[in-house]
C-alpha cells in the first residue's frame, strides 16, 4: 500500500515528528510504501531551489499515486499545503486518515468550558475548518491518537 504523509515540514518540531512517526510506521508495517515530502530533496532541500510549479507537480504526482493519505491536522490552523493535498486526495477518491491530537478537544463535557462559549473570545476549544474536515470525513476518518490511526491502517492492510 502506497501512503502519502501530509504535514507541515518547515519547523524543527514538525520535521522531527514526521520523521519519527513515519519511521515508526515503516518499522511496524514494512509493507507500506510511505512518501514523506521532506525526504524529497529535489523540492524540499531549502538550500537549493524549486519553484512553485516544481513543488506542486512533484507532490501532486505522489498524492495521485497513493492508495491512502495520512494528514496531520494539528497546529493553529491546518497547514495550507496539507489542506490542498487533502483536496486533491478527496477529488481522486483517495482515502484520508486525519491525525488530530490537539489537547483542546478534551473537556467536551465540562460545563464551565461549555458555558464559556457564550462569552465573546472565551472559546476553550480549538476550531478547524469544517470544509476540510468534511472532505476527510466523506472519504476517511479522523483520529486523536497515533495508536488508533495505526490500528485503522492494520485493518486496511488485512482486508486489502
From TrEMBL:
Recorded hits in Pfam families, A to Z, give: Nuc_deoxyrib_tr
- The protein depicted here goes by the name Nucleoside 2-deoxyribosyltransferase
Amino acid at each position: 500500500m502506497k501512503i502519502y504523509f501530509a504535514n507541515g515540514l518547515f519547523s524543527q518540531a514538525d520535521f522531527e515528528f514526521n520523521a519519527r512517526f513515519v519511521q515508526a510506521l515503516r518499522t511496524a508495517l514494512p509493507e507500506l510504501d510511505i512518501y514523506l515530502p521532506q525526504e524529497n530533496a529535489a523540492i524540499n532541500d531549502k538550500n537549493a531551489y524549486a519553484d512553485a510549479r516544481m513543488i506542486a507537480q512533484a507532490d501532486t504526482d505522489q498524492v495521485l499515486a497513493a492508495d491512502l493519505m495520512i494528514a496531520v491536522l494539528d497546529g493553529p490552523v491546518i497547514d495550507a499545503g496539507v489542506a490542498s493535498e487533502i483536496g486533491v486526495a478527496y477529488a481522486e477518491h483517495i482515502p484520508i486518515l486525519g491525525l488530530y491530537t490537539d489537547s483542546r478537544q478534551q473537556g467536551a463535557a465540562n460545563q464551565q468550558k461549555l458555558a464559556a462559549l457564550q462569552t465573546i473570545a472565551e472559546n476553550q476549544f480549538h476550531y478547524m475548518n469544517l470544509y476540510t474536515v468534511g472532505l476527510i470525513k466523506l472519504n476517511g476518518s479522523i483520529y486523536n491518537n497515533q495508536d488508533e490511526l495505526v490500528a485503522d491502517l492494520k485493518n486496511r492492510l488485512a482486508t486489502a
